[in-house]
Amino acid sequence: WYLIGGQSWAFALTISIAVLVIACPCALGLATPTAIMVGTGKGAEQGILIKSGTALEMAHQVDAVVLDKTGTLTQGQPQVTDVLPLTGWTPDQLLALAAAAEVNSEHPLGQAIVAGARERELALPEVTDFQSLTGSGIQVRLDQATYYLGNRRLMQEQGLDLGQAEDQAAALAAGGKTPIYVANEHELLGLIAVADPLKETSPEAVRRLKAMGLQVIMLTGDNAKTAQALAAEAGIDQVISDVLPADKAQVVADLQAKGLKVAMVGDGINDAPALAQADVGLAIGRGTDVAIESADMVLMGSDLTSVATAIKLSQATIRNIKENLFWAFAYNVLGIPVAMGVLHLFGGPLLNPMLAGAAMSFSSVSVIVNALRLRRFKA
């Protein structure tokens, strides 16, 4: 205006100040962090602890939700339902042997067997040389003999003939129970069935996730028949079973290789690598410390409906961020030309720097007020 437009120095300075004031990017800088802050706080109100803004922003992109079975879909409190000896052992003797072997095990199924024996007030023999066979079971020594407790894979590795036990195990699995084989070096001694019922809210949580257009996948180390029975009860169509603990993260990676954004929900030590591998890891708050540490979000309760709430909250937050950015950009796009004196060219007024300052402040306030609308979010 001074050099080309022939206007006075005071005129040019007034326009320069108005442009500098109204072009201040305060609103642009506030657009994202205010929405993230409010969204994170709202998540905490809903019992969802969100560790980072990145996790909150990423959750809205999720295509598939992978659910661990034990302790996530189920109550995590398995109980012994059947003790089926196949030789001269009595049910109490078979259960006492299994419980003695599982005393040092941290696996939920092993703890259920120990609890079952204690409920019956059984005396447990002393075992030695406890070995955990990852993904298969355990091995112990008792009275100079070796005993094995575990899944079908372990029995096959020992070259044992399963005989009629296979039909019994299949019937137990079809009822949603997990059959555990008990054997010594020479023969199969019997079966112990353990059942872990679904949480009451699991079917509703699955229904909500599917209603959002998400793929819901159950991931478990259980055999296919047991897994399918529980999945059908929960309303899950896709099941990945017989997965070794070390392979859970690879399953998530394989889904990601197909172009899916994956959310993993788990609670155990074995779930930690998969939680870290997933685009968004959600840990059950009552789970292990390592699972909570590996996750991006922590569900303080055990209700899986919080998973749908977390994704919905992410969607609402991203929508709010986009609204904030729109208004911040729109303000600058409209305000700067006016401050530059475009209206003056057509006989209109100049923008007073004080009004420019008020408009700049108003834009920041409008972004904050819009972000606070997230407080009205309901699960």
Describe what is shown at a glance:
The chain has 379 residues and is of the alpha/beta class. The protein has 16 helices and 13 strands. The strands form 2 sheets. It has a 7-stranded mixed sheet, sandwiched between helices. The protein has a 6-stranded antiparallel sheet with strand order 3-8-7-6-5-4.
- Give start-end ranges of low-pLDDT stretches: none
Strand content: 15-25%
* Derived structural class: alpha/beta
Largest sheet properties: 7 strands, mixed
Number of helices: 16
* Integer-rounded radius of gyration: 31 Å
Order of helices and strands: HHEHEHEHHEEEHHEEHEHEHEHEHEHHH
**What sort of overall outline do the alpha carbons produce when their principal axes are compared?**
rod-shaped
Would you write up a description of this structure?
Helices cover 50% and strands 18% of the residues. The protein is an alpha/beta fold and 379 residues long. The strands form 2 sheets. A 7-stranded mixed β-sheet has the order 1-13-12-11-2-9-10, sandwiched between helices. Strands 3-8-7-6-5-4 form a 6-stranded antiparallel β-sheet. The radius of gyration is 31 Å and the shape is rod-shaped.
